[in-house]
Specification:
This protein is mostly helical. It is 58% helix and 1% strand. Strands 1-2 form a two-stranded antiparallel sheet. A two-stranded antiparallel ribbon has the order 3-4. It starts with a helix and ends in a 7-residue tail after the last helix. It is found in: Cytoplasm, Cytosol; Nucleus speckle.
Length: 1055
């Protein structure tokens, strides 16, 4: 204990350890010694009067004494854990402690900055901080300097202490191990190359042939390899020498007969270790080389006189020596890489290796796939064989690995430069213009000039990248060279490399392929399986590297899988077909034509057998097949998908699925298939009156992608694809019977396709349902907002949309409400503002109070989303002001005042328009869109002064209200206007508010609904101004405060 306190108290005066450095085995022409940092302390001058410098270094002495003590305790009283805790603390402080701990210093530094920020006085200039803060800053600076005294050079004393910590990290006592491991991890992260020295000692505990290792030591060694969450992981160092030792040792530890490997804590440790390696592993370089140009520049730099340097420079012999050493290091790294692969394979081939360690080894092997080095042949054969492994985990790893191996074996295809302007026959434009231009129309899909013959196919210039040409062309545009300049297709087995022969032999074996298809057709997770991109990449690589060599073997399986409607089999065939289409990118015309003769019947069968569980997989299959592919190459597919997608065969679900699959393919082509989009739109227009909801929703989604490219942006040419405004104009003609009708529109269309003639109104309702689905889908996916023609549909939507939020409403009303909500959030162009306001004014004169109420909710959102566009148009602001004030005077109470009971029951229902207008006005005032000026206040005050005659009895026993509805409505409008002005300032009291409150209080005893409005306004005013009432009441006179007190404070029963 005394030794510990001496160490802590005098740690700042202890000279750093100065013993010899440990040979780390890293050859280098550059000195790896640490740079000495000057911290302002010269120990010789400081201690020459007090300390005899010939005596031993105190830190080394303490370390040596502690080491002897540790050996004694471990030999005689290992259960003395308290002493071991102190020894761990002493070793940690000798290694790390320089007067303060780093984490304590960081905590004090953060606290100092917080106090400094809160107590600074910026008005004092350089004297803005108090003296105590400056003293704390000096002390922190001193601590920071002391923390930098000890460097990171690995010396023999450090080696001895870290080995002691390793010994304690594998102790028999869990708490001792835990504390020692924390100090051990900290030390590993401090000293250079110490891990290379420690790893062999840690791996000694994992040797399967050792019988003297206890379970506790084995467990402690695993923790030492694992590391902590922020420290060094010995099992995952970025060094070939290290992982070449650790990974095989981890796997071979499974052969240990002395350890209980089934123990849950051990199993969890191995799982964590493997998971951490997979998560943190970064590919280690094999070939590190410095380009000759960099060497030349470095030689010129060292000879430069500006800036001058005392460095004499390197001679040519030294430079050549460095290059030679680097080559030797690269060769050694390659040997380590190949040895590691072979050692892991040797471990896997051990018959008595447990399955968990086999999986760990296979996982390590998968991490060794590289893009700059082909995997050794032995490993390739192993992964191909693992495709039919019994364990699904191994099969998944093998699928990804073989797909990566095929990517490594991919042959380079030659490219040639082209000039797109010469191909199009048009000159290069003077400025950049996006869209469909004369110079990029040769990329469009044209059914009259499709490459349907060998000559046309080979002469056609295919461009795979969809984005090329729409905005501009690449500076140097390259495409694949003709077939005669490409690598040979249809190679024989003797023309393949050794690695390719392994894959060829296995996939040419019918039994191997049959077993593989069986495994791929199995269900993995019920209800959660999806189209697997890794399996797709596997088959894509096979058909890309080996052409159609495996097609005869796979064809019977494809026909069998397509005929089976089970979810897993359909998913399997979708993955194979997608890989087959993408893998045929460089096939000759004869092979491609033969392929599509096979695929077209298969796809027709698959689409007819499509189910709820598989339609997503087939949509992904077609979308993946069409991604980054020239549409002219896939004309067989597009013509197939456009064959009457709404034929009705199979019911509405199959029709919706066909459209979904077609949509996935066309969406990948974007701007390059305008002809197909026009054909599809022409086909769908007569079928927009579909009755089935799922078909309507799918048609709406498809329409969104049809018009996706129709955007109006600066420097954008007009699109050749379908135009939204032309389509909407035709739709408006068909919806005229609904738009011109005054009665309420009800959804009376049943979910069945009627036979025979139907009236225009019924057809219009069906059409409207589909259009609503389209507009809702476009709101979230389209690149542009609603066009002018779409805004002309607003009156119809206002008439249909319900007022209340009730899920019991039918589909038509719910969709109309949702569509209005989405359209109100869209961006309006300045030229569209007058049209929208004209539509709102027209609807405000409608006989339907639902429509008048709905335009107010639409108006609120529209103004707030387009605030600056409206503020830039003074006429638009005045129109909105007029519209809101007009709706404040909405006369909805007329013709219902037959008796008082009827009034009480209906007045709450029929004042929504005026109340919503007041809410809208309040919001517009609060965001300063409208201002509370004199004319507005005067107008509301005049309305409030509208005189109301007294009630009188007409018949005995009944009281009938004879107040003219117009007078009451105007007076209520004035009260609502004052209420809106008051509620527009919830957190302050403007100068005009006290008088408005007084005016409003005079109507507290008016008839309903005025009385209710006044009470609600006063209640809200009290709630929003309660917190700062002491400040707000200064704006009122004594008389006004007295009136407010009577209104706002409830009378006391005991007063």
């Amino acid at each position: 204990m005394a030794l510990f306190f001496c160490m802590v108290i005098n740690s700042e005066l202890h000279i750093a350890i100065s013993r010899t450095s440990v040979d780390n085995g890293v050859p280098s022409l550059v000195s790896l010694e640490e740079t000495k940092l000057y911290t302002g302390v010269e120990y010789e001058k400081m201690f020459k009067f007090f300390v005899d410098l010939s005596r031993e270094n105190y830190r080394e002495t303490i370390a040596r004494v502690t080491r002897k003590l540790l050996r004694y305790i471990l030999d005689n009283s290992e259960d003395d854990t308290k002493s071991l805790f102190l020894i761990i603390k002493i070793i940690s402080d000798v290694l790390q402690f320089q007067g303060s701990h780093k984490h304590e210093f960081d905590s004090r530094w953060k606290s100092f900055n917080l106090v400094k920020k809160s107590m600074e006085n910026r008005l004092q200039g350089k004297k803005q901080h108090i003296r105590a803060l400056l003293i704390d800053r000096v002390m922190l600076q001193h601590e920071l300097r002391t923390l930098t005294v000890e460097g990171c050079e690995y010396k023999t004393s450090h080696q001895e202490m870290i080995r002691d910590l390793l010994c304690l990290s594998t102790s028999s006592y869990g708490q001792v191990r835990s504390k020692a491991q924390q100090a051990f991890f900290t030390a590993l992260g401090t000293y250079n190359f110490c891990c290379r020295d420690i790893i062999p000692l840690v791996l000694e505990f994992l040797r399967p042939d050792r019988q003297d290792v206890t379970q506790k030591q084995f467990k402690g060694a695993l923790y030492c390899l694992l590391g902590n969450h922020s420290g060094v992981c010995l099992a995952n160092l970025h060094d070939w020498d290290c992982i070449a030792q650790t990974w095989p040792a981890i796997v071979s530890s499974g052969l240990s007969k002395a350890m209980s490997l089934e123990k849950p804590s051990i199993v969890r440790l191995f799982d964590d270790l493997a998971e951490k390696i997979h998560r943190q592993y970064e590919t280690i370089g094999l070939d590190f080389a410095v380009p000759e140009k960099c060497v030349e520049i470095a030689v010129m730099l060292q000879k430069s006189e500006h800036p001058s340097s005392e460095f004499t420079g390197l001679c040519s012999e030294e430079i050549q020596l460095g290059i030679q050493r680097q080559k030797e290091k690269n060769a050694e790294a390659l040997r380590n890489y190949e040895n590691l692969v072979n050692m892991l394979l040797d471990c896997v081939e051990q018959r008595n290796l447990p399955w968990k360690f086999e999986h760990i080894s296979i996982g390590f092997l998968s991490l060794l796939l590289r893009d700059d080095r082909i995997l050794p042949v032995r490993a390739i054969k192993f992964f191909v064989q693992c495709l039919n492994h019994d364990a699904i985990v191994v099969r998944k790893v093998a699928i990804s690995a073989v797909a990566g191996i095929l990517k490594q074996l991919k042959r380079t295809h030659k490219k040639v430069p082209i000039c797109p302007y010469e191909i199009s026959g048009n000159p290069k434009p003077s400025s950049i213009q996006a869209g469909d231009r004369p110079d990029n129309q040769w990329l469009h899909y044209d059914s009259q000039s499709l490459p349907k013959t060998k000559e046309a196919w080979e002469s056609c210039c295919f461009v795979e990248k969809t984005h090329w040409g729409y905005y501009t062309w690449p500076q140097t545009m390259t495409v694949y060279a003709p077939v005669e300049h490409q690598p040979k297709l249809g190679r024989r087995r003797d023309e393949l490399t050794e690695a390719e022969q392994i894959i060829y032999d296995h996939f040419s074996d019918p039994k191997f392929v049959e077993q593989l298809i069986k495994f791929l057709s199995l269900e993995d997770r019920k209800g959660k399986d999806k189209f697997n991109p890794r399996r797709f990449c596997l088959f894509k690589g096979l058909f890309r590297n080996f052409d159609d060599a495996f097609l005869p073997v796979l064809q019977p399986h494809l026909e069998q899988l397509v005929a089976d409607s089970h979810e897993s089999t359909q998913r399997c065939v979708a993955e194979i077909i997608a890989g087959l289409i993408r893998g045929s990118k460089h096939w000759t015309f004869e092979k491609v034509e033969k392929l599509w003769k096979l695929l077209c019947p298969l796809l027709r069968t698959a689409l007819s057998n499509i189910t709820v569980e598989t339609y997503n997989d087939w949509g992904t299959c077609i979308a993946t097949s069409c991604e980054s592919r020239d549409p002219r190459k896939l004309h067989w597919l597009f013509e197939l998908l456009l064959e009457s997608p709404l034929s009705g065969e199979g019911g509405s679900f199959v029709d919706a699925c066909r459209l979904y699959v077609l949509q996935g393919g066309l969406a990948q082509q974007e701007w390059r298939v305008p002809e197909l989009l026009h054909r599809l739109l022409k086909y769908l227009e007569p079928k927009l009156t579909q009755v089935y909801k799922n078909v309507r929703e799918r048609i709406g989604s498809v329409l969104t992608y049809i018009f996706m490219i129709d955007v109006s942006l600066p420097n954008t040419a007009a699109t050749k694809s379908p135009r939204v405004h032309e389509f909407t104009t035709r739709i408006l003609e068909n919806l005229k019977p609904l738009m011109e009708a005054d009665e309420e529109i009800q959804n009376h269309v049943m979910e069945e396709n009627g036979v025979g003639e139907q009236d225009e109104r019924t057809q219009g309702i069906k059409l409207l349902k589909t259009i609503l689905k389209w507009l809702m889908a476009s709101a979230g996916r389209s690149f542009s907002t609603a066009v002018t023609e779409q805004l002309q549909l607003l009156p119809l939507f206002f008439k249909i949309a319900p007022v209340e939020n009730d899920n019991s409403y039918d589909e038509l009303k719910r969709d109309a409400k949702m569509c209005l909500s989405l359209m109100s959030q869209g961006l309006l162009y300045p030229q569209q503002v007058p049209l929208v306001l004209q539509v709102l004014k027209q609807t405000a004169r409608s006989n339907s109070w639902h429509a008048r109420y709905t335009i107010l909710t639409y108006l609120q959102t529209m103004v707030f989303y387009n605030l600056f566009i409206f503020l830039n148009n003074e006429e638009a602001v005045n129109d909105i002001r007029w519209l809101v004030i007009k709706l404040l005077e909405d006369e909805q109470l007329e013709a219902i005042w037959k008796c008082w009971e009827v009034f009480v029951s209906l007045q709450l229902l029929k004042v929504e328009v005026r109340e919503m207008a007041a809410t809208t006005l309040s919001g517009l005032l609060q965001c300063n869109f409208l201002t509370m000026d004199g004319p507005m206040q005067t107008h509301f005050e005049q309305l409030c002064k509208m005189r109301l005659p007294k009630k009188r009895k007409r018949d005995l026993g009944s009281v009938v209200d004879t107040i003219p509805s117009g007078d009451l409505v105007k007076r209520h409008a004035g009260v609502l206007g004052l209420s809106a002005c008051i509620l527009s300032s919830p957190y302050d009291v403007p100068t005009w508010m006290p008088q408005l409150l007084m005016d409003l209080s005079a109507h507290l005893n008016d008839p309903q609904p005025i009385e209710m409005t006044v009470k609600k306004t006063l209640s809200n005013f009290r709630r929003t101004h309660h917190d700062n009432w002491q400040e707000h009441k200064q704006q009122f006179t004594d008389d006004q405060l007295l009136v407010l007190t009577d209104l706002l404070v409830s009378p006391c029963y005991y007063a």
